[in-house]
Every structure is written in structure tokens, then in C-alpha cells.
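USER:
Class, as today's exercise, take the chain set out below, and explain how the chain folds.
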Amino acid sequence: MQQGTSGSDEMKHAMMMGMDSMQKMPISGDTDKDFAMMMKMHHQQGVDMARIELAQGKSPVMKAMAKQIIAAQNKEIARFDQWLAKQK
């Protein structure tokens, strides 16, 4: 196996799992709720990929960007969760 292939495979798997989850999500018919749910999944996918970069990446620039992505996306996920909790 080439160096870095494992991390790339993991990243592709994380991306595919996120896409699969979004495709399988039942649509509620409420555009706002569906947007929040899909974006939450999309952001989680970005966090998962960024964690793989932190664990296996080599570039200090990309690792720094991954840390920023994790922080920003987790904040947005929390905002979606707060909004969704009020919709129940």
C-alpha cells in the first residue's frame, strides 16, 4: 500500500457514508427542517474528514486548516441541533 493511501481511503469512506446518510434521510416536507438536518450531516462529514487529516496528514498547513474546520463545523452543528430541538 502506498504511503497515505489508508488515510485517503478513510476520507473517501467518511465522505461516502455521509452522502449515503443524506440520501437515506426521510424528507419531512419542511424545507427549513430538511435543510438543517442535511447541513448537520454535511458538516459532520467535514469534521470526520478533518479528523482523518489530523491523524494521518503530513502538511502543517492542512492540519491547521483541519483544526479550524473542526471548530467551525462543530459550532454550526450545535446551532442546527439547538434549532432542531425547538422544532419537536
About this structure: The mean pLDDT is 89.
